[in-house]
Design goal:
Helix content is about 25%, strand content about 30%. It contains five helices and 14 strands. It has a six-stranded mixed sheet.
């Protein structure tokens, strides 16, 4: 499997984000990728304020015209597309991720289970979590999502490992509290914790971190990594940069 991990700089304008994502999909296809993965909230941004009047309009309805464009791109390019977005279902909002298959249909729909994408006082009737951990088995192997803080929740981790997926699709949004974009600090302070959790998952992790200015979630610092279950970092993309990480990975024998 050739995977393309794409870091796009997320802005307030969903249409601009969608255009950047579609460009990334086209480039990944030209590069021969079988799968392209974007970050948590790559489409909408994490700009929720725990105020429904502000936040609900940010959400994308699925099915809907935006997902239709992504499905069309997947079918046209013959590629799997994974990405995160704020999803609106009626008066409910979720931090979600989708995997769209090369036939143009949603294969995985995952809603973040761990709640820290919003504040503790947010209205629980609006700001919701998922409960399901779906797995999709394909000729490329078995895929499953976790989003950001899910990886650090022990009970979610146990459930994930028991499903025995081959690939962990892991969109996240992580920043230093002071807004720093510091490669050495990340390597020493943050990456070892992620590697440890990936080892516990038992799957190869494809990790894409959200990149945005400080007006969108305090300036998440970007970066992308492929980490094996033995803790080996196969490839990485530096913090703070838009770009694409291309990596060839041996698919499991099915």
């Amino acid at each position: 499997m050739r995977a393309a991990l794409v870091v796009n700089r997320v802005v307030h304008d969903v249409e601009a984000n969608l255009c950047a994502i579609l460009r990334g999909i086209r480039r990944a296809s030209v590069e021969g990728a079988d799968l392209v993965l974007f970050s948590e909230a790559a489409l909408t941004g994490l700009i929720n304020e725990d105020r429904p009047s502000h936040d609900l309009p940010l959400g994308i309805e699925v099915p809907g015209p935006v997902m239709d464009q992504l499905a069309e791109a997947a079918a046209r390019c013959g590629i799997w597309i994974g990405l995160g977005l704020l999803e609106r279902e009626g008066t409910r909002l979720y931090d979600s991720a989708f995997l769209v298959g090369p036939e143009g249909r949603v294969g995985l729909h995952y809603r973040r289970i761990q709640p820290q994408w919003h504040g503790p006082q947010a209205d629980p009737s609006v700001y919701r979590q998922g409960s399901e951990l779906p797995v999709l088995r394909t000729p490329l192997g078995a895929f499953a999502f976790l989003i950001c803080g899910d990886l650090f929740d022990a009970s979610i981790g146990h459930r994930f490992r028991a499903l025995e997926p081959d690939w962990l699709l892991y969109p996240l949004a992580r920043c230093f509290s002071d807004g720093a974009v510091d490669q050495q600090r990340w390597k020493e302070e943050e990456l070892p914790d992620y590697i440890e959790r990936v080892q516990r998952s038992g799957a190869t992790a494809l990790m894409v971190n959200y990149l945005a200015g400080r007006d969108l979630m305090s300036g998440a610092c970007g970066g992308a990594w492929v980490v094996r279950p033995n803790g080996q970092v196969v490839a990485s993309l530096p913090l703070g940069e838009e770009g694409m990480l291309l990596v060839d990975l041996e698919s499991p024998t099915l």
